[in-house]
Amino acid sequence: DRAELSALIDSNIAFIHRKERELLDDLTDGMTFSDWIYAFCQRENVRTRNEFKFSIVERNFANFVDWLTDEGKVEVRREFCAKHYFHREK
Q1: pLDDT along the chain (90 residues), means of 10
Q2: Is 84 within 8 Å of 33 (Cβ atoms)?
């Protein structure tokens, strides 16, 4: 019903904002994508040698990073042929 759907939507939005805070906490200015996803995987205890499973983690992480960039919370700079990520100054 409508109340359950509304509660589900609210729960999903809360999850997204919780992940946003966690990812921003994992970010140390100047990290490469590999450094940042490594910090994320350590915190989340993601341990897999399965390439397919890791590709899903990597894709979802990249989507969150793109969203944070689009929202203006993360800045991407190219330095020495690599992308480096920084907290966006307010």
Answers
A1: 94 94 96 96 90 94 95 93 89
A2: no
Residue 64 contacts residue 23 (beta carbons within 8 Å): yes
Q: Strand, helix or coil at 4? A: helix
Q: Which of 72, 77, 68 is nearest to 88 (CA)?
A: 72
CB 69 within 8 A of CB 76: yes
The DSSP annotation for 31-75 comes to EEHHHHHHHHHHHHT-----HHHHHHHHHHHHHHHHHHHHTTSEE
Distance CA(68)–CA(47), nearest Å, equals: 25
